[in-house]
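User: Some background: our group keeps a shared notebook of sequences we're curious about, and every so often someone picks one and asks for a predicted structure to add to the entry. Today it's my turn. The entry only has the sequence so far, pasted here. Could you supply the structure so I can complete it?
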Amino acid sequence: MGIIIAISSVFFIISAIFFSSRGAFLVSGYNMMTEKEKEQYNEKKLLRSMGVFTFSLGILILLAGYLTMNQGKAKEVGIALPFYIVLMTVIEIWYMNTRCKPKNKD
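Assistant: Of course. Here's the predicted structure to add to the notebook entry:
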C-alpha cells in the first residue's frame, strides 16, 4: 500500500504545481509551442484543467489501491481502472483543445 500512496502523492504534488499556475512546462505539447501559438490558449484555464485531471488520477489510484488491498476486488479494479484512465484522458484532451481556447473576437 505504501507504493500506492507514493504514486498518488506524486500526482497530488503535480496537481498542486498546476493549481499554483506554475506548471506550464509540464504540459506536453504546450511547452513546445511558440509564443504566438501559446496566445491561442487561456493558460490559467489550461493549468487548472490539468490540476483537476492529475488530482483525479491521484484519487483514482488511491481508490484502486484500497479496493485491491482491503476489499479483494483486484479483478474488478484491473478491468475498470484502465477504462477510467483512458476515458479521463480523452475528456481532458477534448477539454484542453476546445474549452481552454479563448473565443475569437473577429
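Suggested note for the entry: Residues 43-70 form the longest helix (28 residues). The helical segments are 2-19, 35-38, 43-70, 74-98.
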